[in-house]
Structures are given as C-alpha cells and as structure tokens.
Amino acid sequence: MLTLYSHYFSAADLMLENYLKLQAKQKKKGTLTQRDFVDQRIFFCTWLGFLGVTCEGFRQLGMRLFLMNKRPTAFLELVPKLDEIGKVMTQHDDALREFRNSVFHLRKNLGAVHRFFASEVDRLAWARDLHRLIDRFFSKYRVICEVHYLMHDRVDESQTGKRRRIVSVL
Q1: Rounded to an integer, what distance in angstroms lies between the CA atom of residue 51 and that of residue 58?
Q2: What is the tens place of the pLDDT at every residue in 17-33?
Q3: SS3 for 84?
Q4: pTM (predicted TM-score)
Q5: What is the DSSP letter of 153?
Q6: Which of 39, 119, 129, 160 has a Cα at 20 to 30 A from 145?
C-alpha cells in the first residue's frame, strides 16, 4: 500500500504540482518559453499516466478487501473513502488506462489521447477530483499507520520525529 503511495501516487502528485506551477506562470505572463511549454506537456501527461498506474494499483490490490481483511480494525474507517474513490474511478478508468498506456509505451498514434479529451465529459475535472480523493485517502491512511505503529511499540516503522537516511537508487 505504501509502495503504491510512495512510488506512483507521489509521482502523480509531483507532476500535477509542476504542471499547475507552469499553468499559473502561463496565466500570469500570457505565454511560456518553448522549454516551459514542453515541460508543461510532460508534467501533464505523466501526471495522468501515474494517476492511471495508481488506479491500476488500487484495483490489483483489491483495496477494499485488503483494508477489511489485512489491516487492523482502525483502518475500516477508510472503507467509505475507498468506496467513493471506486465510484469516481470507474466513471472513466478505461479511458485513463488507455491514456496511461499511450504515455508509458511507445505509441503509434494519438488515438487514446484524443479519445480521452474528445468526449463531452470533462475528464480533466474528473481526473482532478479523483486525484484529490486519492490524496485524502493516502493522507488518512498514513495517519492511521502512524497511530498504529506508535500504539503497538513499532516505533522503528514510524515516520514521526525521525530523520531517515535516504539511499539513492540511481
């Protein structure tokens, strides 16, 4: 679960943050440099791509059963949040999956990209709502984890008050 958060959703969150910064810059200045324009497109596409991977992870983990059967009872308060995510996610998850594939695999055409945006449905607003719901879910999940670790003398697993040594994988 935390791998899904740290490797995929955090990447989506970072890409959305960078995209929004460049969007604000464009709004303020009225234009972007060529480099900023390219970066904005990269941030936008990878945000949606990593959001799609996050959704895939939710499905593959069987998140609802995971919380109900493999986590202590304190985690059950997350089930309604998870149900809300599932309800929103299923509205356009196939279109997002196709878009994600077009981002992370060499594409032969832009069909999936066009289909994602060529609908009468505002999938961009949908993606922002989905992102917000997942962000809130993970935020609450991490808080419950911290409380659980501290209450069950698992301080070594806690993030509270610790400075962890980061080991680069590059």
Answers
A1: 11
A2: 999 999 999 999 999 99
A3: helix
A4: 0.86
A5: T
A6: 129
